[in-house]
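User: Good morning. I'm curious how pyridoxal-5'-phosphate would be positioned relative to this chain. Could you predict the structure with it bound?
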Amino acid sequence: MLTRSETAYAAAKQVMPGGVNSPVRAFRAVGGTPFFADHGAGPYLYDLDGNRYVDYLLSWGPLIWGHAHPRVIDSVVAAARRGTSFGVPTEWETEMAQLVIDLVPSVEVVRMVNSGTEAVMSALRLARAYTGRPCIVKFAGGYHGHADSLLVKAGSGVATFGLPDSPGVPAATAETTLVLPYNDVAAVQSLFAARGETIAAVIVEPVAGNMGCIPPVPGFLQALRDLTQQYGALLIFDEVMTGFRIALGGAQARFGVVPDLTTLGKVIGGGLPVGAYGGKREIMGWVAPDGPVYQAGTLSGNPLAMAAGLATLRMLQEEGEALYTRLEAYGRALVEAFLDAGAKHGIPVTGHALGGMFGLFFHPGPVRDYAAAAAADSQRYARFFHALLRRGVALAPSQLESGFVSAVHGEAELAWTVAAVADAMAEV
Ligand SMILES: *Cc1c(COP(=O)(O)O)cnc(C)c1O
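Assistant: Good morning! Here's the predicted structure, ligand included:
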């Protein structure tokens, strides 16, 4: 007897590649059949078969107020009643821009787009135009969306010309992407010494979130700031995941390092499709129609997305930094439960929690870069993931993803999760 999710997945596979609209949703890293969402409420996600999960996926990051928060939903409904898109400016866009400028230290001027991918693509075009240089430095295991020049495979600790990570990306495009190990200052220094005058920008997740959650080692972000400044390259913080999630002002506020450009997404849209990029007025002045760098969007600054984002950010602003302290305490308690359970069963584990993000690795640690994260035991993670699902706890369906805590996860959800982690560890 098939479950409703299994039936739904079989139908989906007939009409969409892998049955999904984004590959990770297909559960390939953990095996089994993805469960289909029926609805969400606060910290809980309910599937088609009526199972309830304490949700740590949270739509891959955006839902910092949990599912269907009344203030977010009311704003979206009120906006929808007035029309879904206009193609002329609205005051909501100015309000959103002002709020982002008030909250994010590096942003003086901002442009809204429709996804994180689009934000990063646009920021790179701007950086190349502004510097007149071709090359972009990224870090192995850093994900910056699926734009061609960033779909480049992790290097092996040596700075090399990039190779495309996907067929369809021209080699010439990938060649301008230089890949270095995360948290390795010496590698960045020697790359700049060798080719500094060709580098338009360094793009980095200031807290890595797409190889599990890996914090920057002390001094790493400052070294990137110093080197880019010294060689006339731009520093781009990709805060699509960390923006409004590590702190109200993002990772740049938490670590006190101010980049030239910042890309945003996920939380800024409150669960609707949004991205943004912004930075110094002088650089953003290069963007059309003020400047020559073209970038546009039929639905950019969409009123429903602005409504969801404004409600989300205003609530964050009302709570202030205390919220992030609370989210981090929750994440730490969860990581501790994971470490305790690992120790009890002699299973090597390590974990990180920062702001509203956390990462769990079946690896003895330390995990500071992609090589270590990729060496973690993925089969054990797959068993652990399914053992937790059966106990009503949903993590990301891959160890190389971050977990997220929302403002509406409370003591009851934590207690439920800690018990589930202890039981699941015994099983794996
Ligand atoms: C999710 C993510 C992106 C891509 O955003 P999409 O909205 O999925 O296009 C880019 N950069 C980082 C750091 C991300 O986490």
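Confidence is low (pLDDT under 50) at residues 154-160. The pocket of pyridoxal-5'-phosphate is lined by residues 115-117, 120, 143-145, 205, 209-210, 238, 240-241, 265, 275 (CB under 6 Å).
Let me know if you'd like a different ligand tried.
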